[in-house]
């Protein structure tokens, strides 16, 4: 028995997220995304009448939800478990793609959209980063870490992990993830240890 393939719209969004994390925002076209997703070009324009901006915004949200799901599942156990799950996920992505893929959300956050009105893409990236920070921060607060410190540590975790993914791609090595993992675990232990 074979599993049904995802609907065309979902394949296109997932395909766009994959292409952006590999090539960047401006090097990803609707035509190539449709081809990558094995979807007719016409259906791509049917599903995304707002064009590349709409598709890219949805791809960012899709990629963000993949990470958020991992965090939701694991930070409920404890913040360190969430951090480890996040790092394991990124390790699997960067190593599994031969260091050719990074983070869709980071890719659109650092690359100015070529077309006018690209602010919705950047807004989506900001919302996604905010959600990740919020999940980590809430987990820390639930364990007694003061709200402002929890927010700072959550931002540090997201920024450090995202930066290490970029370093892994540039260096063609997972070593940056390993180094960041060790330091972030120490930061989390300190924050949790200082909680009342």
Give an overview of the whole structure.
The chain is an all-alpha fold and 196 residues long. The protein has 9 helices and no strands. The radius of gyration is 18 Å and the shape is elongated.
Shape estimate = elongated
Instruction: State the helix count.
Output: 9
Oligomeric state as shown: single chain
The mean pLDDT is 91
Main pleated-sheet profile: none
H/E series, N to C? Answer: HHHHHHHHH
The tally of beta strands, per DSSP, is 0
Q: Strand pairing plus helix content: what structural class?
A: mainly alpha
Provide the gyration radius in Å. Answer: 18 Å
Low-confidence stretches: none
User: What is the CA–CA distance across the termini?
Assistant: 54 Å
State which percent range the strand residues make up: under 5%
Q: What percent of the residues sit in helical stretches (DSSP H or I)?
A: over 70%
Key structural traits:
single chain, 196 residues
What's this entry about, in short?
This protein has 196 residues and is mainly alpha-helical.
Topology at a glance:
Layout (H helix, E strand, L loop, with lengths): L7 H16 L6 H7 L4 H7 L3 H25 L3 H18 L7 H7 L8 H24 L4 H25 L3 H19 L3
Helix pairs in contact: 1-2, 1-4, 1-6, 2-3, 4-5, 4-7, 5-8, 5-9, 6-7, 7-8, 8-9
């Amino acid at each position: 028995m074979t599993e049904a393939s995802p609907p065309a719209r979902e394949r296109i969004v997932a395909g766009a997220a994959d292409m952006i994390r590999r090539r960047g925002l401006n090097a990803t076209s609707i035509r190539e995304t449709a081809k990558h997703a094995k979807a007719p070009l016409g259906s791509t324009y049917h599903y995304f009448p707002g064009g590349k901006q709409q598709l890219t915004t949805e791809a960012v949200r899709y990629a963000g939800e993949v990470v958020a799901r991992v965090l939701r599942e694991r930070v409920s156990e404890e913040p360190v478990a969430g951090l480890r799950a996040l790092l394991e996920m990124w390790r699997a992505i960067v190593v599994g793609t031969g260091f050719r893929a990074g983070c869709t959300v980071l890719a659109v956050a650092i690359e100015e959209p070529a077309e006018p009105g690209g602010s919705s893409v950047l807004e989506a990236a900001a919302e996604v980063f905010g959600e990740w920070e919020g999940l980590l921060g809430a987990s820390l607060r639930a364990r007694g870490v003061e709200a402002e410190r929890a927010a700072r540590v959550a931002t540090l975790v997201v920024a450090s992990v995202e930066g290490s993914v970029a370093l892994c791609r540039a260096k063609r090595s997972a070593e940056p993830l390993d180094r960041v993992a060790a330091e972030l675990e120490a930061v989390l232990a300190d924050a949790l240890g200082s909680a009342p």
